[in-house]
């Protein structure tokens, strides 16, 4: 299934009609970026999450948590979110309309490039199918930045130099901060796209929802932007729970919030969303994974950063074993998770042909990440980041430990004592204090925070400079330090315990995005009848497994419906009785749209001989057998112990009853 | 198991040590009323919710939703929460400490009564075991109002009249508003309990967390205080999804928030909590339930409001059929849910002897409820409201419909047209408009909003008053209406469709409270060794079903552990390998505390003959069989196809290996 003939509007209509989801507070006019899942969407989500729990938490014995959403400001200040989790916004000075500044610049420049291409085509008298020249490196990125409002495209030819400049700006649009965006807006004379009004200077907007905890109004809180922080804060208790053994992973499924400046693209960019996040804690000196051998032959389609930097988008199909060996993927643990993510996504029904793993370019990485691969799924919006697999290094545990003075480390007895040479600092208090007086504390803080490598450098600087060197203290001022105040030397150290801060490999799943992609990949229309949409969810995630319906409203059918439904329920097979007074054909069509894989019909023959028909959604083929047999067949189908093809081999196809 | 010897501190210590839950943001000092669930707490919760979904959603084919938490202020203004979802707080004028005013008054008066009792005992020279006289009606209520800070109890005898006055105030403490509480504080000279400082006048504090949606700062939002509103707003889509059939129910599991003034009592009164709510929509003229016959013989322990008003707490043990027939419980649907709630709670392990259903007194009811029964569970904190079963009547649907002009009604074709006499209003526009001029609209709005009964009254007033009457218009002013402007008369109306706003019966589950009560009910200590705590969760909700451990660290055991764990995993039986280097006895003790019902041990005999031991938590009895057999036995135990008693009958008890 490709999206060649795919019509998003038609699918959206189906999804709304069947209440997979709908804008929240719809009767109040709705709020952008907030959606409710209706019964089929909610069941689909529950099934996907259930499978996620099985596939990750149970399979790998992860430690699942359920943490608070409301988070005191101090925690998110430490994690960097208060300062860095921001976008730049600017305002139409007359209408007050607010734009995300980078999207705005991007949209306007793209519109101008399109206008240029149009003008050039007109000039050449050709109507070539190609529109604006694709910007390869940009095109390779995810579609979240797809233009919302870019204003009218007018056919105006640009100078070659201008065109080149626009293209170059677009290729690195993620690199501009507020000043940079201001400069672009001025240089390119960018106005509010629809009104042409002047724009305000971009200002920073924090994407977290703010609130206040308790009655005093003094304790500021934010709704968490990710579930990860709650996991990091519990690291010590988790390690203890795991009997101090490494490596291990924690996991959490839960709601997170981002107060987007201008949400769009349906379920893809929303203000409230369900995430499923894994934090795998690993020894920074050994990122091998004990189960890597089980996955090493699995091939994945990769888009490494160097390929993107060459302006290309060709995918590299390679086994994860080779990818790790060739250092394309940094380590076994990251590689292991890429495969596990692949297996999960394809199991729930994502088309493997429309799934790739793209490495982040350094300018895209979140403030905490040191390497990142996104599982991207192709949809009608382009390639969408659905699972981020980041190596957050020791960032989070380090900053929280520094702030709280709580040791967030692993202590491992060494098999034998380790003797090593280490650069060490000794402060000669008798001279240090009296010399520096009030500044002593600030200088001491600066010195004790130096790494070994920095100590070595400082020692060399002092040696080269007659035993003294300037140093910037924590009060911001510079002071001279001399070799009678401090001794810096290489000393022999014997350690019996190794103490380290673990690195964290984090696969982070955006459940809403995955569900939306799954709906697109599952959707098709019946040959020759494009009104008849089908959602071919795999049985394991289908919202309802079986429809139970009577051929008509005839009273004699009623007891059979209840009996069959309760048999199925006892086997844990979710089912719906549909006894609305419409034709069997219409009911089947409705359930095709709901993605229900199987349908049972009770008819007059049922009353005579206790047989019922079982219909499969994708083929619309049916069999007719005794109730007991059908129930058993269905049980095996739902539990994946048999396939519909096997069922077709074993039982005769039933065609007599005209249903379609 | 009673709580006779129950020591809450010891259980709390166990629950913290085993990380069932812990204060959120603990390394930052924590925030009152916010808790994280650790791995066993989280698994327990997931299992309870899974069972809830099976028991309610699947069994009754409810329409499950997953709605937004962030809610625009307008929605909660309409629902009444912005105005009425408040508590009264007052402040220590010197320290700034904030108290919930009713709790404060209650605590201080109770302390004085205790002091009085002490003084009287001392006077009589007796040291009777009884403390302050119990206040029956109050004692019957839930423990949420248990004193936090009541200040020192000093033995001061009170006048008999004062004592009586205190007792009477305490019995109706829920009835006081801000003015009432102010008056009490002055009259009884109530001061800040610990400092003795003066208190501020009580001010109203809204319990919803406030935030702002989007970048403009103009759209105020609140975190939802209940999941119900999202369900009501989707009523129209739900009814359509249900093929316009009544009755039906929607359901939602999710997080809700209440910014408590001073949270306490652990998991019982928190600021963020998981709820599971059902909204069952029913015809107000027929609240019978189609499946009532299935439950009518179930006996429940009820505490009706009239018993409480008599100052008594004796429970009435009665079948729900009789209770509904005798009008103790208002209708079948409410009765049906009380039984379903009872079955659910006892299935997950709540002790039926410590479970009762208490009817709300009229002064306790939430602003939207017209009748309410709480499932209360007895814990060391007293009787705790864990599931509220409220009849919210048509309140919510009516107010949202009025505010949004969206019809939230059911339209039912009548079996035959209904002819009736109805009071109707006709406006004579030619006279009405010109007479009232600018006020015409406001008067028309007032007239058209009159009910039939009010129209009849108005008609009489006009008839008695020479064909005219004063009426208050929607602009607040009074105008004269005459019988040449309007005609009010009894007309014959023929209806083919009946249109009505459904009533809503709402069972609302506080999952955290239920989990805490379950932990208390499941807890006991081994005979003769009070250090050895056990949590006897039913297998179906136990966080982990089976422990897999080696007898020692011997290398030959390792392959068996992995093999057994993967066999269990394939059967969906959650298990943990514990190969920490502690004795088997200590590992069993740890898993008793985690509530793991079964434990497998691999020992030297395993290596020789492939047999393993299986131990049951509560009895500590073991059997020894081949791995294949043990796995099958475990499968049947976990799926509740067999019991440990049956296993004991079938297989010989194994005693040789010394474990305890």
From TrEMBL, chains A, B:
Its EC number is 6.1.1.14. Its main location: cytoplasm. The keyword Cell division does not apply. One of its GO terms (molecular function) is glycine-tRNA ligase activity. Keywords: Aminoacyl-tRNA synthetase, ATP-binding, Cytoplasm, Ligase, Nucleotide-binding, Protein biosynthesis, Transferase. It is found in: Cytoplasm. Residues 222-538 form the Aminoacyl-transfer RNA synthetases class-II family profile domain. Gene3D superfamilies: 3.30.40.230, 3.30.720.200, Anticodon-binding domain, Bira Bifunctional Protein, Domain 2. One of its GO terms (biological process) is mitochondrial glycyl-tRNA aminoacylation. GO terms for cellular component: mitochondrion. It catalyses: 2 ATP + H(+) = P(1),P(4)-bis(5'-adenosyl) tetraphosphate + diphosphate. Homodimer. Belongs to the class-II aminoacyl-tRNA synthetase family. NCBIfam families: glyS_dimeric (TIGR00389), PRK04173.1 (NF003211). PANTHER family: GLYCINE--TRNA LIGASE, GLYCYL-TRNA SYNTHETASE/DNA POLYMERASE SUBUNIT GAMMA-2. This is glycine--tRNA ligase. It comes from Thamnocephalis sphaerospora. The lineage of its organism: Eukaryota, Fungi, Fungi incertae sedis, Zoopagomycota, Zoopagomycotina.
């Amino acid at each position: 299934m490709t999206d060649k003939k795919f019509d998003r509007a038609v699918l959206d209509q189906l999804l709304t009609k069947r209440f997979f989801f709908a804008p929240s507070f719809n009767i109040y006019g709705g709020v952008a970026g907030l959606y409710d899942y209706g019964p089929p969407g909610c069941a689909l989500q529950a099934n996907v999450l259930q499978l996620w729990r099985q596939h990750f938490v149970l399979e790998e014995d992860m430690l699942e948590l359920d943490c608070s959403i409301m988070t005191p400001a101090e925690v998110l200040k430490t994690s960097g979110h208060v300062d860095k989790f921001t976008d730049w916004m600017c305002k139409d000075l007359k209408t007050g309309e607010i734009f995300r500044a980078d999207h705005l610049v991007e949209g306007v420049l793209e519109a101008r490039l399109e206008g240029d291409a149009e003008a050039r085509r007109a000039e050449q008298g050709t109507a070539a199918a190609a529109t604006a020249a694709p910007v390869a490196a940009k095109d390779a990125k995810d579609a979240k930045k797809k233009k919302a409002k870019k204003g009218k495209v007018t056919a105006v030819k640009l100078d070659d130099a201008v065109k080149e400049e626009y293209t170059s700006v677009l290729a690195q649009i993620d690199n501009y901060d507020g000043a940079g965006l201001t400069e672009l807006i001025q240089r390119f004379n960018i106005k509010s796209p629809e009104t042409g009004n002047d724009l305000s200077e971009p200002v920073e907007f924090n994407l977290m929802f703010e609130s206040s905890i308790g009655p005093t109004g003094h304790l500021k809180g934010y709704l968490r932007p990710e579930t990860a922080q709650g996991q990091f804060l519990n690291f010590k208790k988790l390690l203890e729970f795991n009997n101090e053994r490494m490596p291990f992973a924690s996991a959490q499924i839960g709601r997170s919030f981002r107060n987007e400046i201008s949400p769009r693209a349906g379920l893809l960019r929303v203000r409230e969303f369900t995430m499923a996040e894994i934090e795998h804690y690993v020894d920074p000196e050994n990122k091998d994974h004990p189960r890597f051998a089980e996955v090493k032959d699995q091939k994945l389609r990769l888009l490494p950063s160097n390929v993107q930097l060459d302006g290309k988008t060709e995918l590299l199909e390679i086994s994860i074993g080779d990818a790790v060996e060739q250092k394309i993927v940094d380590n076994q643990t990251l590689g292991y998770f890429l495969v596990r993510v692949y297996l999960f996504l394809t199991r729930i029904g994502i088309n493997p042909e429309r799934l790739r793993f793209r490495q982040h370019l350094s300018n895209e990485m979140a403030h905490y990440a040191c390497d990142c691969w996104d599982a991207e799924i192709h949809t009608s919006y382009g390639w969408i980041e659905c699972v981020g697999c980041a190596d957050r290094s020791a960032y989070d545990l380090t900053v929280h430990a520094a702030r709280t003075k709580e040791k967030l480390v692993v202590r491992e007895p060494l098999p034998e004592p380790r003797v090593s040479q280490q650069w060490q600092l000794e402060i000669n208090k008798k001279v240090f204090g009296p010399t520096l007086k009030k500044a002593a504390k600030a200088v001491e803080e600066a010195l004790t925070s130096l790494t070994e490598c920095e100590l070595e450098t400082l020692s060399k600087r002092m040696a080269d400079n007659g035993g003294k060197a300037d140093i910037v203290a924590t009060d911001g001022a510079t002071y001279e330090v001399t070799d009678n105040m401090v001794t810096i030397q290489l000393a022999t150290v014997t350690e019996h315990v190794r103490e380290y801060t673990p690195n964290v490999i984090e696969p982070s799943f955006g459940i809403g995005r995955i569900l939306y992609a799954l709906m697109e990949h599952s959707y098709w229309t019946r040959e020759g009848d494009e009104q008849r949409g089908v959602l071919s969810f795999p049985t394991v995630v289908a919202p309802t497994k079986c429809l139970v319906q009577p051929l008509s409203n005839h009273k004699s059918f009623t007891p059979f419906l209840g009996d069959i439904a309760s048999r199925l329920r006892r086997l844990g097979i979710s089912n719906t009785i549909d006894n609305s007074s419409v034709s069997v054909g219409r009911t089947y069509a409705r359930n095709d749209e709901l993605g229900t894989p199987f349908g049972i019909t009770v008819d007059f023959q049922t009353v005579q001989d206790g047989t019922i028909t079982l219909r499969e959604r994708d083929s619309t083929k049916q069999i007719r057998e005794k109730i007991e047999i059908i129930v058993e067949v269905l049980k095996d189908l739902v539990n994946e112990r048999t396939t519909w093809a096997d069922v077709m081999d074993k039982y005769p196809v039933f065609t007599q009853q005209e249903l379609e």
